[in-house]
Design brief:
Layout lengths: L1 E4 L4 H10 L3 E2 L3 E4 L5 E4 L7 E5 L6 H17 L4 E6 L18 H11 L4 E5 L13 E5 L6 H5 L7 E4 L5 H11 L2 E4 L1 E4 L6 E4 L10 E8 L3 H11 L6 E8 L5 H7 L2 E7 L7 E3 L2 H13 L1
Parallel strand pairs: 1-2, 1-5, 5-6, 6-7, 7-8, 9-10, 9-13, 13-14, 14-15, 15-16
Antiparallel strand pairs: 3-4, 11-12
The structure holds ribose-5-phosphate (R5P).
Ribose-5-phosphate binds next to strand 13 and helix 6.
């Protein structure tokens, strides 16, 4: 058994291979001047291969790369592929919110089945609905139990773990339980057509306290910015923004800091400067159990 890391998950792939004491499959990779991707496997492919490849931006390119890698691995002898998709693109389009929409995640699931993929590891998918579009053995793991150690390094002052909307409350609860803190959530509404977000305060008791905002994904940062603005009005001490998937498009980071966010902490499902928690310890037991099946 060997592991291969796609171009988007090189760091995470190496870390997982070290923890599992597995050899990596070398990958020769380049982008042609016109933007097309080129891959070559200079070394032997094993019968069982773990492929780690995040579908982070640019998502559509990552998806094409994924299929090149799967097809290539199969052609060169991999009969069993365990596919680790640390960030699953299109997971928020798991239903038709408006008439005429396409369920994008369904297309991805169908294409992967067509290529014979039937063992998956996902990290914090947006809703359990997403998983029904993939066929075979599926394990979803969560990054949120792994935030404990880093948060404890900050000597948090009477912390409140706060979800910026009710859907993220389940993640906030995990973080809160692990560090022995209170948790709550803010009420958020998003206009489906314009994408604009409105946040409403509940009775939040945050005066002088450190607040840790916890969400599954930070994309534009709009949700965190709105929450931070609300908290500022309540006399909050420091604001931390933690997420499993730090997509951070455009000015997300600057906007969050400008809104008063003190520290931004994400994981390596999308590798960046803010990837301060690795999801490898959560992924490894999932891989082990799929290997045994
Ligand atoms: C939405 O339901 C998600 O849980 C996140 O709150 C959302 O994707 C964050 O997006 P943004 O950073 O653009 O507000």
């Amino acid at each position: 058994m060997k592991l291969i890391a796609g171009p988007s998950s090189y760091g995470l792939g190496i870390y997982i291979s070290k923890l599992l004491s597995l050899d990596m499959i070398n990958l020769e990779w380049k982008i042609f001047p016109d933007g097309e991707s080129y891959f070559r496997f200079p070394s032997k492919i094993d019968d069982v291969v773990i492929l780690v490849h995040s579908l982070s931006p640019p998502q559509d390119k990552r998806i094409v790369e994924l299929f090149f890698l799967i097809k290539g691995l199969r052609s060169y002898g991999a009969n069993d592929i365990i596919l680790v998709l640390p960030y699953l693109a299109y997971m928020r389009q798991d239903k038709k919110f408006l008439d005429g929409e396409i369920i994008s995640i369904e297309v991805l699931g169908e294409l992967l089945s067509f290529y014979g993929v039937n063992k998956y590891v996902f990290v914090d998918v947006h809703s359990s609905e997403v998983l029904k579009f993939f066929k075979g053995e599926i394990i979803e793991v969560s990054a949120f139990p792994l935030f404990r150690d880093i948060l404890l390094t900050y000597d948090l002052v009477n912390p409140l773990i706060l979800a910026p909307d009710v859907k993220a409350f389940k993640y906030a609860e995990v973080v809160a339980r692990n560090i022995g803190a209170e948790c709550d959530y803010i009420v958020k509404r998003r206009d489906r057509s314009t994408g604009e977000i409105e946040s409403y305060a509940k009775d939040l008791n945050v005066n002088g306290r450190d607040v840790v905002l916890v969400d599954d994904i930070i994309t534009t940062g709009g949700t965190i910015v709105n929450a931070a603005k609300l908290l500022k009005g309540y006399g909050v001490n420091r604001i931390f923004a933690c997420c499993s998937h730090g997509v951070f498009v455009g000015n997300a980071i600057t906007n969050m800091h400008n809104a008063g966010v003190y520290e931004i902490i994400s994981t390596d499902t999308i590798e960046s400067y803010y990837s301060r928690v690795s999801v490898a310890p959560a992924i490894i037991p999932a891989i082990k159990s799929l290997v045994e099946k």
